[in-house]
Amino acid sequence: MVKFSERVYNAIKNIPTGKVTSYGEIAKFLGNKNAARAVGNALHKNPTPIVVPCHRVVNSKGELAKNFGFGGISSQKQLLQLEGVEITNNKVDLTKYLFHLS
Fold first, then answer.
1. Is-catalytic flag, 54?
2. I need a labelling partner for 27 at 20 to 30 A (CA). Which of 2, 11, 45, 79 fits?
3. Cα radius of gyration (the chain)
4. Greater pLDDT, 13 or 1
5. What digits encode the pLDDT tens for the residues 89-99?
6. Is residue 65 within 8 Å of residue 57, measured between CB atoms?
7. What is the pLDDT of residue 5?
8. Residue 9 in contact with residue 42, Cβ under 8 Å?
């Protein structure tokens, strides 16, 4: 059986460059809509942030992670901006950039 964290990492690999998804979207995709915190915990322990683009995950309001585990919020912001994602007040416009996993 595949560990929850591995399922999270595999899901995130599907988010295209220039798009984001939320912790809740990932949890719902994995079959447990209440597991958003568990998704966040798995991302914080991501062993390969270059392979698993966890910077593309934001909260349900589009806000960047205050405790982004790989350089803080400024690092997440910079990585998303390099991909063409517009960020205003540390927030992404989900109507424009949200990617639904399916």
1. yes
2. 79
3. 12
4. 13
5. 999 999 999 99
6. yes
7. 96
8. yes
Q: Say which CATH topology domain 4-97 has.
A: Arc Repressor Mutant, subunit A (1.10.10)
Q: Classify residue 66 as exposed, middle or buried by CB count within 10 Å of its CB (0-12, 13-18, 19+).
A: exposed
- Position 59 scores a pLDDT of 96
Q: Report the chain's mean pLDDT, rounded to a whole number.
A: 94
Mutual orientation of helices 36-44 and 4-12 as an angle, nearest 10°?
80
Which stretches of the chain are assigned E, i.e. beta strand? 21-22, 57-58, 87-88, 91-92
Contact 5, 45 (CB under 8 A): yes
Measured CA to CA, the distance from residue 32 to residue 72 in angstroms comes to 27
Q: How far apart are CA 78 and CA 26, in angstroms?
A: 22
> Which pair of structure tokens corresponds to residue 45?
């322990």
Phi, psi (rounded to 5 degrees) for 100? -90, 120
Q: Out of 54, 57, 80, 92, which one is annotated catalytic?
A: 54
32-61 pLDDT, tens per residue? Answer: 999 999 999 999 999 998 899 999 999 999
Q: What is the pTM of this model?
A: 0.93
